[in-house]
Write a structure and sequence with these properties.
Strand content: 15-25%
Radius of gyration: 25 Å
Distance between the termini: 11 Å
Bound molecules: 5-amino-5-deoxy-1-O-phosphono-D-mannitol
Strand order of the largest sheet: 3-2-4-1-10-9-11-14
Number of helices: 18
Shape: globular
Largest sheet: 8 strands, antiparallel
Number of strands: 26
CATH topology of the largest domain: Glutamine Phosphoribosylpyrophosphate, subunit 1, domain 1
Structural class: alpha/beta
Length: 618
């Protein structure tokens, strides 16, 4: 939540900051602002409520003097509503210092009271916790005129999660940042340097990046980068090359990032598999950092995540238990963190996160480590925090996901967790090599099958167009179709603002069937009739039960399944696939449906109301 960018370099700060904010806007879009030190040493700021475009229009109408040093912020409101006053930057040292903040300062009320006691004339211009930090850093700066020391002194007193960037008009060419439990990465340029909430902030300018650890402070000038801990001691840093290219985070010719990212679902899976299937076996050397013998010695796996990532975790449970025969629990990260889970050194906690920054998941990972568990991260974002806090990481290679609704990251996560499940099965000898090779063959076929499903976009768009007045949609699935029902419902709520619920089809008769009335649309994910279980028959019976009560059936069924035809109003076809691979295909029509329905209602599918891409507060 909140996007942050800092820059020192040429006299083009305004353009660099706005470019960075444009790429970071998915992190929050309640308001935006920038602060720039111009060549005459003046500090100019501009901030506006609303989307970034409001700020850009304002700057076009009334330009700010450009300069070589600047900071920029796009906000997801926590303390104080989304108005001009609460937008960042906030000022300290009587307007000479500007500060931006991502996170929550939990003890801000105490700090504010103390500040007012010491300086009763202090005027607060906003309701934010961030302004208190700006004023405190300003007071510290007045004592020493050392911006890094001032920030270090203040962050030592803050509780909660934060990334802070500050600049001072008397220190042109310097931006100082600090972080705790909130993201910040450094971009290394030639005669210019950058800070950003993630690499998207500076990817247009450089692919060289550097991680900043927990409780560290960074000072950038055009020619130097200095990182210390909060006590001012130098720390070791790690440089890395950003693999994404700038065009990957551009909309290109697509109507929305969500449309583009759905179209990238096949390539997201293909790229996640590349190099990881070798001679019919799984190649995941990344798991080695878990330690020798760890996979062999596990007695339990806990999969954690939030939202869409939690649904990919549910599929992971089915795969790991079926193939590797280890008991698996799936938990929402925030539930895991705040109860007393029983874990031991023989438990592996696997976190799944596209952003690698979700605070609930990060805190759960840290907690799991404190309890003695080993931790693995399945993550899509290089340089993010959760992988750094984990014993091992398997990256998904979905490329940057910008739309708030997660789509391509989901299929990439499932592909990665299936690879992991098969690797564990290999190590523990629960599947024969030939069975593993055959399952890997099926996984390898998924990208082409996804491309086949995408060809049905037009008919799904037509269906969505007919349903713009719909007020409620139900999604049903059994077994591996159940997480897909949940995912379909989440996507529809999130982007189309339609009340929707996903249920396990077997649960219908235990209550939800009371919701069925004539005309109620129900999506049903129909299992394959070829599977050696009786699930298909059971789901067809469920369809008949709700159809008898007037439901309008929208079935997602495999090619050639004729049993659904007499009962379905609409059938969306997916290619033949076995039970655990079918969900990867069935989810695509639901992603398309949510997007097309939201678009038909004239909604902004990339930036749905009240949401932000990365949930970096608990
Ligand atoms: O970055 P993460 O994968 O950790 O994010 C988890 C959820 O916040 C995320 O999946 C969210 O539910 C999406 N907006 C769903 O489309």
């Amino acid at each position: 939540m909140c996007g942050i960018v800092g820059y020192v370099g040429t006299d083009q700060s305004v353009e660099v900051l706005l470019g960075g904010l444009r790429r970071l806007e998915y992190r929050g879009y309640d308001s935006a602002g920038i602060a720039v030190i111009d060549p005459l040493g003046r500090l100019g700021t501009r901030k506006r409520a609303g989307k970034l475009q409001v700020l850009i229009d304002d700057l076009e109408a009334n330009p700010l003097a450009n300069g070589a040093t600047g900071i920029g912020h796009t906000r997801w409101a926590t303390h104080g509503g989304p108005n001009d006053e609460n937008a960042h930057p906030h000022l300290g040292d009587e307007g000479r210092l500007a500060l931006i903040h991502n996170g929550i300062i939990e003890n801000f009320a105490e700090l504010k009271a103390e500040l007012l006691l010491r300086h009763p004339a202090t005027v607060f211009t906003s309701e934010t916790d961030s302004e208190v930090a700006a004023l405190l850093v300003g007071l510290e700066y007045q004592k020493t005129h050392d911006l890094s020391l001032a920030l270090r002194t203040v962050v030592g007193r803050l509780n909660g999660a934060f990334t802070l960037l500050v600049l001072h008009k008397d220190q042109p060419g310097v931006v100082v940042g600090a972080r705790r439990n909130s993201p910040l990465v450094i971009g290394l340029g030639d005669g210019e340097n950058f800070l950003g909430s993630d690499v998207a902030a500076f990817i247009e300018h450089t692919h060289r990046a550097m991680e900043i650890g927990q409780d560290q402070v960074v000072t950038i000038t055009p020619d130097s980068v200095t990182v210390t801990d909060f006590a001012g001691r130098p720390v070791e840093t790690r440089e890395f090359q950003v693999e994404w290219d700038a065009s990957a985070s551009e909309k290109g010719g697509w109507s929305s990032f969500m449309a583009k990212e759905i179209s990238e679902e096949p390539v997201a899976v293909a790229n996640t598999l590349i190099g990881r299937i070798v001679d019919g076996a799984v190649h995941l050397p990344e798991l080695d950092t878990l330690g020798a013998g760890v996979l062999e010695g596990l007695d339990r796996i806990v999969l954690i995540g939030c939202g869409t990532a939690a649904y990919s975790a549910m599929l992971g449970k089915y795969a790991i238990e079926k193939w590797a025969k280890i008991p698996v629990d799936v938990e929402l990260s925030h539930e895991f963190r705040y109860r007393d889970p029983v874990v031991s050194e023989r438990t592996l906690v696997v976190s799944i996160s596209q952003s690698g920054e979700t605070m609930d998941t990060l805190m759960a990972v840290k907690y799991a480590r404190e309890l003695g568990a080993r931790t693995l991260s399945i993550c899509n974002t290089q340089g993010s925090t959760i992988p750094r806090e984990s014993d091992a990481v398997v990256y998904t290679h979905a490329g940057p996901e910008v739309a708030v609704a997660s789509t391509k990251a989901f299929v990439a996560q499932v592909a990665a967790i299936y690879l992991f499940a098969l690797r564990v099965a290999e190590v523990r000898g629960t599947l024969a090599a030939s069975e593993i090779a055959s399952l890997l063959g099926e996984l390898g076929a998924v990208p082409d099958q996804l491309a086949w499903v995408l060809e049905q976009q037009d008919s799904i768009k037509q269906l969505a167009g007919w349903m713009t007045d719909t007020r409620s949609v139900i999604f049903l699935g059994r077994h591996a179709g159940y997480p897909i029902a949940l995912e379909g419902a989440l996507k529809l709520k999130e982007v189309a603002y339609i009340h929707s619920e996903g249920f396990a089809a077997g649960e219908l008769k235990h209550g939800p069937i009371a919701l069925i009335e004539p005309g109620q649309p129900v999506f049903v994910i129909v299992p394959s009739p070829r599977a050696k279980d009786s699930l298909h028959k059971k789901v067809v019976s469920n369809i008949q039960e709700i159809r008898a009560r007037g439901a309008r059936i929208l079935a997602i069924a495999e090619e050639g399944d004729v049993a659904v035809l007499p009962y379905a109003d609409t059938v969306i076809r997916i290619p033949l696939a076995s039970t655990l691979f079918e969900p990867l295909l069935a989810v695509v029509p639901l992603h398309i449906f949510a997007m097309e329905l939201a678009s038909a209602k004239g909604l902004d599918v990339d930036q749905p109301r009240n949401l932000a891409k990365s949930v970096t507060v608990e």
